[in-house]
């Protein structure tokens, strides 16, 4: 999964709500065990630091509006 897929999913499926990394994995049909989900959390955290996403709560990510 690449960053553009994450952003597109957050924009279309979770437009007004924040999403968790494991729910994104479930929606995309990716493995939901801990190692792959941690990689996604890391990528989402990087996007928060770059200003593309917001983090309204611990472990929750949302597209910046």
TrEMBL record:
This is BlaI/MecI/CopY family transcriptional regulator. Residues 17-28 have a biased composition (Basic and acidic residues). Residues 17-40 are annotated as: Disordered.
